[in-house]
Amino acid sequence: MRITYRMMTSKYSTNLNSLSSDLDKLNTQVATGRKYARTSEDVSSAVRGYQIRRNISKIEGYQDNISHADDFLTNSESTLGQMESSLAEATDKILQGMNGTQSQDDRKIIATELRTIQDQLLETLNTSTSGMYLFGGSNDQKPFAVVSGKLQYNGKNLDDLNDGATATAAEKELVNSLKKDSLYVDIGLGVSFDETTGEVDRNSVFNYSTAGINFVGNGTNSTVISGETVSNNLYDLLGRIATEFEKSDVNYSASKVDSLYGLYKENSLKTYQTTTQIGAKSQYLEFMTSRYETQNFNLEERQVKVEGVDAAYTYIAFQSQKVAYSAALQMGQSVVQQSVFDYMS
Predict the structure, then answer these.
(1) End-to-end distance of the chain based on CA atoms, in angstroms?
(2) If the chain, 345 residues long, is cut into consecutive pieces of 10 residues, what is the mean pLDDT of each piece?
(3) All domains of the chain, ordered by start, with CATH?
(4) What is the pTM of this model?
(5) How many whole angstroms separate alpha carbon 263 and alpha carbon 265?
């Protein structure tokens, strides 16, 4: 069979293009560290790689949510620490005022100091971060306000929010909804929905905020002082103690202050309990963070095995292919014949 010049050049061109294509593929693998640049090159690996990437993306989303929730909890804990300091200062002032050696003027000075602490409490309760109020639940407006001398929470007078033994079912339901109102985030607990209402099941998401009504107090107490209904919330309770200190020696009642102080101490414990609950939530987030870091590391290792190349082997193959391609180019000088056009200038 006669081999023509055209057949030789055609075969040479085909082989050279094949070498060039393989060289380009190896060059891409060396540069990217991946086995393939298009899904069609390795469908099986690409599908598995996509699943791994999707799982990594989900974990990164959970980690972002955890970071946001942890920052919110840190701010909440710090703010509650400020509130605890104010309450401790109020305790010292009340005990000082209860001392029998205090004069009427001394008690009035203490009353003024207690009202200053009231203002501090109100400001602390309305602390916000990133546009959300720490203790307002899902409300994006200031949760606490003083109207006609009484503290309100999300537009409702705290004295009217009764959930005690004498409360009606409707009153208890209202208070319960306010106390449970919170901010939630998906951290990978398996979000589910209530089949009846279509709402997210709160047990399947993470609650990272605390409604202020839970530790400030609500409703009233009619047993502390005979014939008087006393507010349960810490703000109004401090105001009531200050009012008693402002009375003259004739009208001042040390026994009333003692009873009010007992209620104040009992209700202020809720603040410390809330701080403990926040600490427990932060610890849980630390556990979840560690868990996802481990999962992410394992997934990235799997991703390298599925999508990645052996760097040393691929680099050697790339260099060998470069040598082969250069040799093919040099061989072309003897395969492709010279013509008169090569000598034209």
Answers:
(1) 38
(2) 60 65 58 63 78 91 95 95 96 93 93 96 93 90 94 95 89 93 91 77 88 95 92 96 94 94 95 95 96 92 70 60 63 57 46
(3) 78-283 (1.20.1330.10)
(4) 0.79
(5) 6
